[in-house]
From TrEMBL, chains A, B, C, D:
The active site is at 227. Residues 6-84 form the ACT domain. This is Formyltetrahydrofolate deformylase. Its EC number is 3.5.1.10. PROSITE patterns: ACT. Belongs to the PurU family.
């Protein structure tokens, strides 16, 4: 088997799309190994993800031949090699449990990515994990006054590294509207609450004060509207009256890291498609 | 073994409470079969629930003897027979899955309660379940104009039936402030969202619009502040992008009925103690 | 929109199946509203479920035209109207929580089925629920000696009612090998443990003795090999050391009824396909 | 507040134990900050865990004074400082996700332990994590022939380091009966299935073959009877038909590490008491 390609697409729904797409792939001699589609009947939109073995056909040829079909149906689409490690920039502040977790998963081959750098507003010494070896570390301190400059540096770094995804792994600075627009659709944040509950700062303390019986975490794309971006993945765990805010922080670390890692994996495998302010997630 | 008594108490924390309480019970010849306590170190409050076999000692005597201790420590307390079926009034609107579920659980002996009546703002024909046989059904229709009268009737019913608990089993009318004050601490509502997310009307439609990946339900005591009362129990289930609001409603029914039933059971077994706007729940 | 048809199929995997199937449907003027497929790369088998709006094309014509394609690919397949209520026979012994639950879900339209009868080895008085009104109740008592006769009666009943599915809703008698063969692929049982743990009798007591920290339930197709049939759905809940076997039974009732109801719904919506001793479940 | 002590005890149940224990502590001027007890009414056994602030009273004095009480009631008991880091020896084979996880949690202060060494039957190079710095690493290779010698070395290491707990963090060698006896009650293993399902080797492959819809992990004390020791903690996650054994291995890593970490934390905080072949776990 050759290395599969992944075709991910969305367009307005109309009859015959699946037949058209799969017919084309069959005609190219490709063999589908995984396929999912979703008809959003409420929005009249269609979403599809196909992983296929191109067989002996040239990848570039398949891609070019698909162009006219995509045009005909008005598709937003990508077609990429499944095995190519995407370039990812990780950002962190003081709490590095999500960072350490992502680094470990990359190290053992669980998440296929090329970590092009780690950015923090704190110095390297603040980071507990030792898995950083060989990964460029960028200390970009920030104050209210220097925010524009800091973000300019960050932006330069994204361009220089050609990062395809920026992960806010408990990076505790709010990005400017400009920056969120620039990173639109390619920046994932982990919020330490079960959104839309407890937006903003200190969500575990908010959760404790409200007396909820479950706490959670939410991985979402970053948008200008804080904690309102399209949700990719969420999870929760039960807590009791005996849990202090600190206990919740401890429990929450586990939820945060597994929710963020799952969102990153899903995104990198082209399993997440945007549907307005929501997402379509083809879990496989 | 005699039928156990349940002592539930709360007071300001100070050294020696457990020793004092359990010492008294030992001295009365009682045997503790279940005990839980919670020191809220942040609020400096103490909570305790003890189930004990009174042995050959007279129940009334034990209760009387405990009075001075409770006074000394400034305790709020109750001491009741565990096997006594509490009088419960159930309220419902059009969707009767929670009602049918509570009736069934009572019928098979899972929840020990004496259902003194079912109240609805819709006529009896609106109710699907047949388990109502023998339970007084009260049709109390309501409009904006007749709300004060309707609530007066409801109040009269609570008094006449000496209901100890009122359960809003998907009763879709907002109670007035007066009514919530009157029922304070003895009225449980099921809200069909994972509070504090999606307060107010049509929470599943809100959840769908926001694109959350889990939906839930919350059982809480009713207060004047809508959907803000002390939470007793919550649960959630995962949903995907493919779930329509109607799918969420269907899935939600299962969550709602098990969350409400658990909250009612916990309350009736004296396992829920109020701690300001939160609850202490001794699950056992 | 016309009432959709559901095409469910499985066959040996080979390139072009999806294109062939969806191409045929497009050519018939059908519009796909939901589609899922699964390539079992380990077994080289292909599974697909498509719900489609036939538009103005005659249903029978679509079905006939599909025959040759199915033949060509060696498919096992069905094509049925989605809205047709399947005929279901429910069986129960003493504990009727699953039965009452299924009856209620049918009553409110959550599960679309035509309950053609309820069979029990106990008399009607043993059943708590009142939702039986209008449904034929068959008391088929059983002893070791009368088992062959009882099963003959059951078989006659299945044929007479043309039941498409038999649900063992806590029917506590083991079916004979002959009977399981006869009902192969159309008989669902709920086992009150998280299989393969705690097969056989009194699983909650087994679970208590072993000291597990979670209990569960398993819905599976019935086969001659007891508690070994293809699993459709499972769920669990946490328990603590304080749970007695009776507490587990109580908690288990909730798990059993939701697991069985989900399995029945999935089966009736043609979402469950057999894959040897396992199942493919297209959850939607 | 002084550093609390933790008293953990078990004995045959009889009236007045709680009063006796808490009365003694009150008399010593201690203030209870957390207390849990469990009456096993089926086995007639009593279990208790109390965390208390000794105030100005000398710890040794409290301990000595408790001796006669423990003797009177036939208690098995310990009384230890809550803040003392217990000495822990970690063992690993090739898969180090549990090891890396425990090291990280210790590093950030989440689990309070003094890691006195890491033992592996593979050389240090096999370990991915870099958090080993400063922790003695012992390569103890093993073959069928050298097992007695290897275990002798291991035993010497346990004695030399005075390890209070040995954690088999995916250590894939079966300990001899002698060794399990030697480590009885102070050796925790993580098994990568939801026991009692799928004992023995390759549980994820067993789970795949059986077609279960959930996979899990189990942390338990090691006994001579393989995978039969008292269970401390378990958790599961849903899987679908699409999950290959490799997908299950990946998902399982997350479950394994959080289940093992929780079991280790519970054990080190004296929250786990043995009750025959089961455990009492005071979660707090």
């Amino acid at each position: 088997m050759s290395q599969p390609l992944i075709l991910a697409l969305s367009c307005a729904d109309r009859p015959g799309i699946v037949a058209r797409v799969t017919g084309y792939l069959a005609q190219c001699g490709c063999n589908i190994v995984e396929a999912q589609q979703f008809d959003d009947l409420l929005e009249n939109k269609f979403f599809m993800r196909v992983a296929f073995d191109p067989g002996t056909t040239d990848r570039e040829e398949i891609r070019e031949g698909f162009g006219p079909i995509a045009l005909e149906y008005g598709m937003a689409w990508t077609m990429q090699r499944r095995d190519r490690a995407r370039r990812v920039l990780l950002m962190v502040s003081k709490f590095d449990h999500c960072l350490a977790d992502l680094l470990y998963r990359q190290r053992i081959g669980e998440i296929n990515m090329d970590i092009v750098g780690v950015v923090s507003n704190h110095p390297r010494e603040a980071v507990t994990t030792h898995l950083l070896d060989g990964i460029p570390f960028h200390h970009l301190p920030i104050t209210k006054e220097t925010k524009p400059e800091q973000e300019a540096k960050l932006r330069a770094l994204v361009e220089e590294t050609r990062a395809e995804l920026v992960v806010l792994a408990r990076y505790m600075q709010v990005l400017s509207d400009d920056m969120t627009r620039y990173l639109s659709g390619r920046c994932i944040n982990i919020h330490h609450s079960f959104l839309p509950g407890f937006k903003g700062a200190k969500p575990y303390h908010q959760a404790h004060a409200r007396g909820v019986k479950m706490i959670g975490a939410t991985a979402h794309y970053v948008t200008a509207d804080l904690d309102e971006g399209p949700i990719i993945h969420q999870d929760v765990e039960a807590v009791t009256h005996a849990a202090t805010p600190e206990d919740m922080v401890r429990k929450g670390r586990d939820i945060e890291r597994r929710v963020l890692a799952e969102a990153v994996r899903l995104h990198l495998e082209e399993r997440v498609l945007l549907n307005g302010g929501r997402t379509v997630v083809f879990k496989g």
